[in-house]
């Protein structure tokens, strides 16, 4: 049903910072005919993601990519989804112990003085990789909703929206390439 809502042809969807692959795998399971790609800087994460995809019988093309220093290796994308690192290092003391113990810090934290670093790169490189009308959906730091929206608008995206989660916290930003 998601395909009918978002796409008129076989979509190409990219998950940036896939980690264990849960987003990419879920997208593939929900939209079986989609071409789903997933990027991560960590070889260990990509191995885990591939194991999870195999176990769940989801065909996802996993690629190693250091997005801060390399281009997006897939073009003609209909959608980019991402849950990039967004927790400022100064916010780590507020986090639950189980998160800090089991999540790689590289997947969680960003510098206090450049908290939107990944969104800047996703907005810029994503604009080149998306088709016209392509969409971006990113999870965000709840305290930086306005700034994240402004970043995507300045990068040339339209219809930028801030979506709240079930706890009424700012959680997702969507944006559309003109």
The quaternary organization reads as single chain
The SS-based structural class is alpha/beta
The backbone outline, from C-alpha atoms, is: globular
Tell me the number of strands: 9
Q: Determine the mean pLDDT.
A: 87
Q: How much β-strand is present in the residues?
A: 25-35%
Rg from C-alpha positions? Answer: 16 Å
User: What series of H and E elements makes up the topology?
Assistant: HEHEHEEEHEHEHEE
Give a quick account of the main beta sheet: strands, pairing sense, barrel closure: 7 strands, mixed
Tell me the span between the first and last alpha carbons.
25 Å
Largest beta sheet: strand ordering: 3-2-1-4-7-9-8
What level of helicity do the residues show? 25-40%
> How many individual helices?
6
Low-confidence stretches: none
Features:
globular, 6 helices, two-stranded parallel ribbon, alpha/beta, 178 residues
Structure description:
This protein is an alpha/beta fold and 178 residues long. The protein is built from 6 helices and 9 strands, in the order αβαβαβββαβαβαββ. The protein has helices at residues 2-6, 22-30, 43-55, 97-102, 117-129, 145-154, and strands spanning 12-16, 35-40, 61-64, 77-82, 87-88, 109-110, 130-139, 157-164, 170-177. The strands form 2 sheets. Strands 3-2-1-4-7-9-8 form a 7-stranded mixed sheet, with helices on both faces. Strands 5-6 form a two-stranded parallel sheet. The longest helix has 13 residues, at 43-55. The mean pLDDT is 87.
